[in-house]
Amino acid sequence: MSSHADLQRLATPGAPEAPADLGVRVAEFRKLRGMSLRALANAAGVSSSFLSQLENGRTNASVSSLRKVAAALGMTPAQLLDSSTAHTTGVLRAADRPTLPLEGGDKFVLSLPPLRNFEVYAGVFAPGATTGPERYVHGNSQEMFIVTSGSVVLELSDERYILHKGDSIEYLSSVPHRVTNPHTETAEVMWITSPPTPDEDHA
User: Which helix (H) or strand (E) holds 193?
Assistant: First the structure.
């Protein structure tokens, strides 16, 4: 993977330009995420004309602008410069997964935004843990809920489903839902949502 040396080369006056395919890679990752040129420019805080010139190889990126564009793509500068990640932003190691707090458990983010078609979360529920005291909704997407270890109860509107390892259920994220683990063993689950719902809609 490209490292600090690549960034240092960009920061050094008179140094060679960034790899010639940097602009191509920016364009590929932008399209992979379903972002328009204007949307990426706005997210990165750069001008559309600069981004267009960068993607077409007519200008180079400073360290500052490279970091901004990479962050807007949900990547690190090293990942953006790494030619081995032509079709992915790279591996997200378990130890590096960002988490969201739950009552008695954790909700791990498995897919980093922005993604065009889906998002994935993995939850670890200690005995007695829940997603919260109330059922919640987020957007109106198709959601697949899968139990990968242990057992949980999924409350879906007025229905209750006891789900064990390997069980799954599909529903709309606009239907009020809640997960609890009333059992004595830790449970692990996954949510797969398509399309992604806005961050502010998540519980």
Answer: strand 187-194
pLDDT in tens, 159-173: 999 999 999 999 999
Q: Are strands 187-194 and 142-149 parallel, antiparallel or unpaired?
A: antiparallel
H-helix or E-strand containing 65? helix 63-72
User: Which strand (E) or helix (H) includes residue 25?
Assistant: helix 22-32
CA distance 152 to 123: 11
Query: How much is the pTM?
Result: 0.61
Domains of the chain, CATH where assigned:
4-81 (1.10.260.40), 94-201 (2.60.120.10)
Residues in the chain: 203
| pLDDT at residue 12 greater than cutoff 50 | no
Q: Is the pLDDT of residue 202 over 90?
A: no
